[in-house]
Amino acid sequence: MSASSRSPTRAPESVLRRLEWTVIRRLDGVLHGDYRTLFRGYGLDLADLREYVYHDDVRHIDWNVTARLQTPYVREYHEEREVAAWFLLDLSPSVAFGSQALEKRTVAADFVAVLARILTAHGNRVGALLYGDRVDTVIPARSGRRQVLHLLHRMEKRPDVKQANATNLADLLQMAWRVAPRRSLVFVVSDFISTPGWAKPLAHLARRHDVVAVRLYDPLEMELPDLGLLVVQDAETGEQLFVDTHDRGFRKRFIAAAKEREAELRRSFQAAGVDALELATGDDLVDAILRFADLRKRRSQLAAGGSLPAHLGLHS
User: Fold this and answer.
1) What pLDDT is attached to residue 314?
2) Which segments of the chain have a pLDDT < 50?
3) What is the pLDDT of residue 140?
4) Do 173 and 32 contact (CB within 8 A), yes or no?
5) How far apart are CA 132 and CA 82, in angstroms?
6) 102-155 residue pLDDT tens
7) Class of 12-38+81-313 per CATH?
8) How many CB atoms lie within 10 A of CB 139?
9) Per-domain residue ranges for the chain?
């Protein structure tokens, strides 16, 4: 399916100021009490030892002390509050599509700006890897509002990729493994329209980092309306195909293929052990962030010994 014509380039300062007033301001009160749950630090210093109690993380048992005292003891840690967050940004041609008011690429930029601003407002560092037809930009992790503006500028001012090979997300994920050696919060922002083979590198990345897959999509990618005869074009390869959307059988096959792809994506995310946030071109960004907050809280409850319905970690 072809990409729509590129939206006009937006001034990063204007974009961020608008989001600060329309999105971040609305989220401030809602997320204030949830910040620690959403963005936990990963640096830990040993603080004390105490007896094991039910629901403690067994990975924190000190086996030497346990063997000596014949009673299970666990290590307690002071948590380093600073979070390093990385945005792995798929900006391949298929992301420059949108049948709604916004393209997937614009939705991605707004999401990244909001999350990056929330993180840097608390003194954390954010960095990014940008993928067009390859990983062509690495933005080192830094803090501050200026870093958010720099990240937005690099996203907004990128030239269109005129011709590209099919997206290979495995390259982006493997590069992230090399660029971010310490445990971090990693957002993979993509429509996940890629050649096969990215699921294994995603799982590998999730063993080191706290990974969230932010899956971009447009409603037109799920179901085609009856628009008669159309020429559709693959945004990345340029291949064109003449289709008759008036054909009910064709529309049913399209929906079936889309559902199978959805199911395969969810299986891949589940197998990799990553949270997934669905973000459509018509979504309200505040609602999307709140879904993310709810997902993180439920994950935290699960880690504490609660239960989590299987669908909540995979689809919002």
Assistant:
1) 42
2) 1-5, 33, 43-45, 78-79, 308-316
3) 97
4) no
5) 30
6) 899 999 999 999 999 989 988 899 999 999 989 999 999 999 999 999 999 999
7) alpha beta
8) 19
9) 12-38+81-313, 44-79
pLDDT tens by residue, 235-248: 776 777 888 888 88
Two structure tokens written together for 148:
């958010």
pLDDT for res 36? 53
Tell me the two tokens of residue 94: 């298929």
Instruction: Report residue 57 as tokens.
Output: 């993380």
Strand partners, 138: 129
Q: How far apart are CA 3 and CA 134, in angstroms?
A: 19
* CA pseudo-torsion sign 154, 289, 312, 177: positive
**3 state SS for 91-140:** CCHHHCCCCCCCCHHHHHHHHHHHHHHHHHHCCCEEEEEEECCCEEEEEE
Q: Where are the alpha helices (DSSP H) in the chain?
A: 12-19, 25-31, 35-38, 63-69, 104-121, 145-156, 169-179, 199-208, 248-272, 285-303
Evaluated on CA atoms 36, 22, 132, 99, the torsion sign reads positive
Q: Which residue has the tokens 């689809």?
A: 315
Vertex 18: Cα angle to 14 and 23 (nearest 5): 150
> Which amino acid is present at 130?
L
Question: How far is residue 221's CA from residue 239's CA, in Å, rounded to a whole number?
Answer: 17
* Residue 84 contacts residue 124 (beta carbons within 8 Å): yes
Instruction: Give the DSSP letter of residue 22.
Output: I
Residue whose structure tokens are 């690429």: 105
Tokens 């910040």 identify what position? Answer: 35
Give the per-residue pLDDT at 67.
86
List of residues 6+ apart from 103 with CB closer than 8 A: 3, 4, 6, 7, 95, 96, 97, 281
- Specify the 3-state DSSP secondary structure of 211: strand
Task: Output 224-231 pairs: Cβ under 8 A, ≥24 positions apart.
Answer: 224/251, 224/254, 224/255, 226/251
Please report the pLDDT score of residue 60 as a whole number: 75
- Which pLDDT belongs to residue 250? 85
